[in-house]
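FORM 7B: Structural annotation worksheet

SECTION A. Query
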Amino acid sequence: MIGIETIVFYLFAALAVFAAVRVITARNPVHAALFLVLAFFSMAGIWMLLEAEFLAITLVLVYVGAVMVLFLFVVMMLDVDLVQLREGFWRWFPFGVALALGIVGEMVWVLGGRQTAETGVNIAKHAADYSNTKELGRLIYTDYVYPFELAAVMLLVAIVAAIALTLRHRRSAKKQDPSKQVLVKSKDRVRIVSVPSSKKVSVQSDVAKADQVKS
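SECTION B. Predicted structure
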């Protein structure tokens, strides 16, 4: 008899495959982005079934809550030429099919291997107090602390390089030289200008003019 978890898994898997197919077949970029959001939610449900709640919440918060919102904002704000986007579809279609078949072949080879089949026969259920977040944090900061720090450094270098490459060829970009800022003196930045004062009108003359107007 098929359990409820198996039914839910096949449901989420079918939704993920359907949404992934619609991402590349939808004519409207906004619809494609929304189907990608559906694919992310479906994959998050599969992660929840695997007791990986941290990865599921991260997938929803980071990709759906940040990345996809940015994609939708860019797609909706820019005037995207749909005809130009479809020009190279059939030219790259054979390459995409070959790449998809290669990925499917790798998945079948890994999941259908003898070692994978032997380790995946009896999957032990964790206790009720098991925390995937705690276990993941323990592994990252103990066994995989150096790869984790190396990945952080690589991401930081990538961010700095992207900013440098973007602003390098722009003439309108404003740059600051700290060495020149330190050597700046007050007389180079502040100029005292003498402004002549206006003529003072006596209070008595003002009162006299006011009396003439009243009379």
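SECTION C. Observations
Residues 1-81 form a domain with the Four Helix Bundle (Hemerythrin (Met), subunit A) fold (CATH 1.20.120.1200). The CA atoms of residues 8 and 159 lie 39 Å apart.

SECTION D. Sign-off
Analyst initials: ____
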